[in-house]
Structures are given as structure tokens and as C-alpha cells.
Amino acid sequence: MRAFRLPLLFAATFSVFSSFVALPACADELRVLAAGAIAPIVRTVAADFERRSGIHVTVANATGGVVDKRVRSGAAADVVVAPDGVLRGLGKDGYLNLASERPIARVGIAVAIRQGAPSPAIATVAQFRKALLDAPSVAVIDPKAGGSSGIYLEKLFERLGIASQMHAKEVLVPGGLVAEKLVDGSAALALHQQSEILLVKGAKLVGPLPADIQNYTVYVGAVGARTASGATGRAFLTMFGEETARRAMVEHGLLPEGD
């Protein structure tokens, strides 16, 4: 019987104890299902976890809505990292163990253009609204796909009184990196979570939505209610509090929870 060893963490300061905790013998694989913008960070943590524990981690990602459907349909996942509303809904219905819940990071929505295009003014709500109306086409996540930014933006366009104009020019993306539509010429403007914009080569980040209308998605992790790898999953989640993970969050445009 082998034991895997990972450092313990101070919950408040994220410092690493010099002592170690032995994990019980378990399967050689940890299955993680991650939603949207948090996926690059999950992969960073997964690589570190594999190196330190010897346990292989598979990471699958989709929009928050698809993550919800997959878990409810019986998808095998030892750990789920998703927007807080999705995760707590799954926990309430018995799919996840909410006692293991760990807040990880939050991210806001931003505006992007193709590299080389002139940047619109978006510092105020009025400027942002004008930029949307002036753009011939705007790429967003299709709200029907369950992406958190798309759901919020659909309601925001209604609040701004421009829903009909936006529906006529929207380039709806079912999932993935919305800013890719800038690079292939399908859209002149893209609205997506900042961390996902930064992943697209050839896209330029203009800036976040004005503070008065900004919307943050908070990502939370928890282990599956029926997984046999609960201890391993909890150890995996603690690593999001370490400096390597927190630094990766900042580099990818996310804000570590607790900051």
C-alpha cells in the first residue's frame, strides 16, 4: 500500500507547513471537471499536483451550464470547479460534497478588439454603450450555452436599452474563446471574461467593463459526493491557495479569493 504526500496549508495565510500529510491509498487518477475561465489555472495546479503526488490528473472543461448538465447526467468527476451558483446547486442536489467547498478566484468581464484596431473608449457606462452601438459586430458567449458572461450580458443589454440592436449584430459563440472571433474576422468587438481574452493570440484587451456594470464570476471547487478519492480531491483543492496557483491566477487575469 503506498501513501501520497502533499504539504498542508495554513488556511488564512496559505503558508506551507514543513510537515506533510499522508493520503490513503487510492486510484492513480484524479478526474477534474472545470468551467470556463478557471480551466488554465486548474491545469497549472494539476501539473504541480501530479509532480508532487504521482497521481495523474485529467482535466475536462466546458461552460458552467454544460458542467452542470454533465454532472447531473452522471459524468465521472472527483473534483468540480465551477461558478459558485452552479457548484452550490449541484451540492444542494447531492452531487457534490459542500463540506469540501473552497473559493478559488473571481474574474470580471472585459472588452477586446483585434490587434492593430483602434481601441474604443469604455471607461464610463455611456462610452461602453456607445462602443457597442458603433461596432458592426460583437462576439459573446451564447447565453443558451450556459456561459456566465453570456447570461449576464444578455440582461445587461436589456438594462442599457440596446437589446434589439445587439441581437441584430451579435456573433454568438457556443463555448470556448470568444476573442477568436476577432482574429478570424467574424467580429469587431468581443466581450468575455478577461482571463479568456488573454489566452487568444492576436486579440487585444481594451479593458474591463465600467465598475458600475461589472459582473464577477466567483469560481469554487468541491469534491464529488460519491467519489472514492475524496481525500485526494481535498488535497488537490488546497493547492489553489499556494503561491504558484495564486501567481498563475493573476497572470491569467483572475483575482485570487481572499485578495
TrEMBL record:
The keyword Transmembrane does not apply. Residues 1-27 form the signal peptide. Keywords: Signal. It comes from the Bacteria. Gene3D superfamilies: Periplasmic binding protein-like II. The keyword Signal applies. InterPro entries: ModA/WtpA. This is Substrate-binding domain-containing protein.
